[in-house]
Amino acid sequence: MPTISINRKDFERLVGRPAIAAEQLDAWLPLVKGELKDQDSDTGEVRLELQDSNRPDLWSCEGIARQIRIKLQGAVSAYPFFKPTPRPKRRIQVMQGLERVRPYIAACTAVGYTMTGEGLAQLLQTQEKLAEIFGRKRRTVSIGVYRLPHIVFPVTYALVKQDEVRFTPLGVEEKMSPREILAVHPKGLEYGPILAAHDRIPLLMDEEGQVLSLPPIINSREIGEVRVGDRELFVEVTGTDLLMVLLTLNILAVNLADRGATIEAVEVAYPYATELGKTVRTPFNFQKARSIPIKTIEDALGVSLGPDRIRQALLAYGYEASATKDRGSISVRIPPYRNDLMHPLDVVEDVAISRGYGEFTPIMPSQFTVGSLSRLEEVSDRIRDMMVGIGFQEIISNIMASRLELIDRMRLAGSDWDRIVEVENVMSQSYACLRQWITPSLLRVEAASTRAFYPHRLFEVGEVAVLDATEETGTRTLMVLGALIAHANANFSEAHSCLDLLLFYLDRPYTLEPISHRSFLDGRAGRIVSNGLAVGLIGELHPEVLEQWQVSMPSVVFELEVDALAERG
Amino acid sequence: MSTASLIDRLHPLEIKVLTALSRHQSQSSQPALREEELGRTAALEPAQLSMAVEWLLAKSLIRVESEHITQIVSLTKVGEHYFEKYSPVERILSAIRDASQAGRRLTIQDIRSREGLEPTEMSGAIGSLKKDGAIRIAEGGQVEATGTPSRTAEVLRSLFQQLRGSTRELQAFPEPMRRVIEQHAVKRGNAREPFRIDERVERWYALTPEGKTIAEAITRQGVGEEVSQLTPDLLKDGAWRTKRFRQYTISLRPPRLSAGKRHPYREFLDLVKHKLVSMGFQEMRGPLVETEFWNMDSLYMPQFHPARAIHDVYFVKEPTHAREIAEPFLSRVAAAHRNGGETGSTGWGYEYDLDRARRLVLRSQGTAVSARTLASGPNVPGKYFSIARCFRYDQVDATHATDFFQVEGIVLGRDINFRTLLGLLDLFAREVAQAKESRFLPAYFPFTEPSVELHVRHPRLGWIELGGAGLFRAEVTRPLGVDVPVIAWGLGLDRMAMVALGIHDIRDLFSTDLEMIRTTRGHF
Known about the structure:
By secondary structure, chain A is of the alpha+beta class. Chain A has four domains: 3-73, Phenylalanyl-tRNA Synthetase, Chain B, domain 1, CATH 3.30.56.10; 80-282, Phenylalanyl-trna Synthetase, Chain B, domain 3 (Phenylalanyl-tRNA Synthetase, Chain B, domain 3, 3-Layer(bba) Sandwich); 290-357, Phenylalanyl-tRNA Synthetase, Chain B, domain 1, CATH 3.30.56; 375-567, 2-Layer Sandwich (BirA Bifunctional Protein, domain 2), CATH 3.30.930.10. In chain A, 29% of the residues lie in helices and 26% in strands. Chain A contains 16 helices and 25 strands. In chain A, the strands form five sheets. In chain A, strands 4, 5, 6, 7, 8, 9, 10, 11, 12 and 13 form a ten-stranded mixed beta sheet that branches. The radius of gyration of chain A is 34 Å and the shape is elongated. The mean pLDDT of chain A is 95. Chain B is of the alpha+beta class. Helices cover 39% and strands 20% of the residues of chain B. Chain B has a seven-stranded mixed beta sheet, with helices on both faces. A four-stranded antiparallel beta sheet of chain B has the order 1-7-2-6. Chain B has a three-stranded antiparallel beta sheet with strand order 3-5-4. Classes of the chains: A alpha+beta, B alpha+beta.
């Protein structure tokens, strides 16, 4: 979900409407799934978040303006440079070996538009968003823009040794070899790992041997630094996925065309086969027409629109669309700057957005269903009600906790209980594990609440995770009741009375079996056994545990596995 | 307030004091009574008397007629000790005497260590003895008795005898003795002295005119014996009939109780849960630790999706992978990602990594629970919900929690389409948020198409995003064996909960502050 910055005046020029009111912008933003983040009325800067990660064509002022302009005009204006003829004047020759490094390149020229400050700002922003987000940090797609008059065609997309050439990259004064760039240049350090597996690296050179760039790292300073006032540009995209490379170039081409540039295609000649053959003319419209039954669209939308209104809606959203002869289907082709049509139902959303979601009257699903809680939730709720009745305050805690809280402070290091789910990518030591019992969560409250008046009677019914090799995920999620009593005279007998009452009402006969557990005082801890099954624990917390938590009151706890209690006897 | 109702509100102790004063007044020309005598006549313990007097003063029924301050001398613990084991002055004299009889002479240091005296005791005593002329310090620091008796020693001995077990007014002693007492009385910074001088304030109390009226009324009518607490005994023998029940001042704040109570945030979630059940939704549950398969792959999020990276999801350290993913789901989902499989989609067109599918993560979205439900042969028509704990790799701050609840669900049915989706969201807006106005905006989720954001006008927050929803993509439903349209919906309720609970920091939803938990009230 990229956030981009646009200039209001620039936007108005591209939409073709002066002084667009704030309410009008609000009404248009749903067309691009955009959300207004903030705006500066002095500078005219508006920041928008674009939600659709499959629509990189919308991540620029030109793209947003285009979608709105199409809606206003009812159809997209033609982009003649996508036509397969005539044969381009300019050529790029790809060299052998690149198929193993960075196989694809696409390029075009743009002349006749004098670069403005705002135009350049948008070009740089688009380049960055496309390469970083869509191009996965330049790994699959990267972009170069150059001053066309300095380049002598044909251009060669070559594979060179790292010390074979020297050129002056952007940002420095002197000539450097690719090896030096990868070793010391900031961009070399940032993006160099993309080429790390290769001895020989991609290089773009012209007929006279001038270096254009070292894709996907950096442009040359003489040719590859576009300035305000430039009128003739060369744009290229390299990458590892042909369709993504083509789509990116298509977006850049229509953006520049929308600003008034004349786009001319470039022919790319490969020594190896691609999905589109050995010679590819770029920009290239790789979208094919698909036929979608009207019924599919109508069923999904829940409204009978008929082929004409569906066609109209799609045209006004940039599609090429026409009803089939029998009017039972519609033949559609999405514009070449998009590639997000994976399933016929993807067209449905565009029909709805084009018409406006407000045009659809909500209706209630009519079929009868029975609501219910899970057995586990029902039993949890009964237990919670009883605990409240016995006088306990309910707590909700984070399930994530630290090892210190779950193990060390509980004196459990090295014991049977020292087996917990831990995360590999720890953000903060306080949240590095999942709790395996509730008591540490309640002690966390107790430690923070020494000034709250006593007695303290706390409980939580919540989830814990334990390791269990017999489960699909190697772990088991359990619902557990934990209860803690803390006051000057808190003792085993008081907790036992509460437990006894609770299990009486749940009609669960039980016995207590003495256990040795390092969190509890010896001889004052027991396992709760019901129907021959261990269902919980009860005990007086060891003074050392209380010291570790800096709890100054005697505390006694019990825990019960709700899962075990939820099984019908 | 009328005389009668004033009498009704009097505490039995107050009545005793009033009647005692009234009786005294009628028998004596002097209307006021000394505190001590008042206690005696009213037959009250000092503590009871002082309580009753305080209450009556506050009600202006009695007044302080006069006040007299007396200085009272008593022996301290040190004094008692000196009486029995002799004072330092006496002990120094006898030590010198014993030594000289044995033909030896002692220095101050010798005496101090022999008698085990504190430095302050020692210097005070030596000073007094020198002043009395009873000793002198010879060359070489040796102390000699002059033969003159010590006046101080004599006075102290007599005072110990007089004051032992009793107290006396300071003024009762002649001037020279008073000087010795003051010199050896406990002062700030020197507690090791034999005498204490306390100030005793004596007050004389008299009835005010109003008090007189009340007291006379009491004498005239008499009062039944007053009780404060009805007891089983009083009920048993009917004795309550002859008693008078003191009336309470009910405007006082009561003592605080520690009660059993549900957590306020849980109360909010319970309310949401009950609303969903009443709308026909069935609860579903899932595990906290999930595979990437159920958490993301089955939801058609490609394995290269940016939100699946190490900085968005928590990965489990050990075990790292699930043993296996159930078939036929794994193969079908893998095919949907690769080339669409049998879903009618083109798929994402990348090489799906089967090992990655088994990677264990902490559940990052409630939709994972929906995916598992879809695969488990759900009811058609069917409505499901879960309130699932989810985990995100986020820096914890006022608006981000590391684990939190997501309220999510699905609706399956042959009649499910874009308009019934909007109808369901409309219902949520009215039932869950009590919103009168709502609107729908296009949205993007990797697993739904079309996708909708539900915005509602909240009475206190204005327009807020209440939730997101959409129709599950065929790439999600088909591989899981579902061939009817399915609505996927999620509600973002934490902001609403925070407003309802009056808190501003998301961390306070899971507060560890018991006082805060006890006093937070929900306004639902």
